[in-house]
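Reading a protein record of the kind used here takes only a little practice. The integers have meaning only within a learned vocabulary of local backbone shapes. With that in mind, consider the following protein and its fold in token form:
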Amino acid sequence: MNLTYLAAEGVSESNEPLIANMIVTIVVFLLLLILLKKFAWGPLVNMMKAREEHVASEINSAEKSRKDAEVYVEQQREELNKARTEARDLLEASRRQAEAEQARAMEQARLESEMSKEEARRAIERERAEAQAALKNDVALQAIAAARHVMKTQLATDEAAQKALVDQFLADTKGTN
């Protein structure tokens, strides 16, 4: 400590204590460096290497997780697109089926309507034929009755003439129908 005092005054008595002091300080400093290297620097460097490896493994793990997440997101997008496509296809199939069902129902209704029309036309034809036959019979009977009454006196005995008159009348009636 004397050295500090002497160095502060700028005066030195001799260079020997100063050089010896410097040598001791350098030796102590080197000894301290060796001790630090052996006991502090080695474990500190090992700890830093371990930390570096840990950070590198965490980065690799995070990168792998990110890639896995990207793959998962892509898979989910594909699944979503697939589900949308299936839903669209189902809707289209349902629409086509509904249209086909509607067309089938319309065709069925049309066929039933035509069958009803045909049946009504046949019934009308049948009734018309029956009415014509009944009318012919009525007309023939009325004509015969009227002819008998009118011709009673003239054709009372001539049945063949009456028959010819009725046949003529029926032939004329068939021609008018």
